[in-house]
From TrEMBL:
Record-given protein name: PadR family transcriptional regulator
PANTHER family: TRANSCRIPTIONAL REGULATOR YQJI, TRANSCRIPTIONAL REGULATORY PROTEIN
Biological classification of the source: Bacteria, Bacillati, Actinomycetota, Actinomycetes, Kitasatosporales
Transcription regulator PadR N-terminal domain segment(s): 7-80
InterPro entries: Tscrpt_reg_PadR_C (IPR018309), Tscrpt_reg_PadR_N (IPR005149), WH-like_DNA-bd_sf (IPR036388), WH_DNA-bd_sf (IPR036390)
Domain Transcription regulator PadR C-terminal: 92-181
Length: 188
């Protein structure tokens, strides 16, 4: 997937400035597709010159005007074409898994601290996802729209649930790795 497609999806969900788009990447999309502010602005500029997005100047009080981006017809067509293309499942490249296998040729116990750090990062990410789910989808403050289900909202939620399931699976695996490493550590 190209960053272009992630940006198009985000702008179809809600038009916004480059800054707002970068914040959305930090808040939600970035957990599945990361991009720096510079990358986002570079792609926006290219997409604008290719006619994929429209830009309008929005006057602001006491600040410079902002540029608000929205998806133009050619951008919708590009996204539609991409959505209909088959994709191959991603190949997993996992540095930690290689380190764990390589620990057989060194001191497996030396890897415990790194696995614990890695586990902490995933536990924090899971907590963030769960808080976002309550805030945006299941809690008392979650926005509710009357009528039939909103496809965009339902699909955002299913992606979030996938992230939650992935983090839970990763934590279960890391607990298994830690138990194995502790079992291999020489008694002191």
């Amino acid at each position: 997937m190209a960053l272009d497609h992630a940006i198009l999806v985000s702008l179809l969900e809600q038009p916004g400035s480059g800054y707002e788009l970068a914040r959305r990447f930090e808040r939600s999309i970035g957990y599945f597709w990361t991009a720096t502010h510079q990358q986002i602005y570079r792609v926006l500029k290219r997409m604008e010159s290719d006619g994929w997005i429209d830009v309008r100047e929005v006057p602001q009080q006491g600040r410079p005007d902002k540029r608000e981006y929205s998806v133009a017809a050619p951008g919708r067509a590009a996204l539609s074409a991409w959505l209909h293309e088959p994709i191959e499942p991603e190949s997993v490249r996992h540095d930690l898994a290689v380190k764990i296998r390589g620990a057989a040729f060194d001191d497996p116990a030396a890897l415990i601290r790194e696995v614990e750090r890695y586990r902490e990062v995933h536990a924090e990410r899971l907590a963030h996802y769960l808080a976002g789910e309550v805030r945006d989808f299941t809690g008392p403050e979650a926005p509710r729209a009357p009528g039939p289900p909103d496809a965009g909202r339902e699909l955002q939620h299913v992606v979030l649930r996938g992230g939650i399931a992935y983090e839970r699976m990763t934590l279960t695996w890391l607990d298994d790795v830690l138990a194995t490493l502790h079992g291999l550590a020489p008694e002191r």
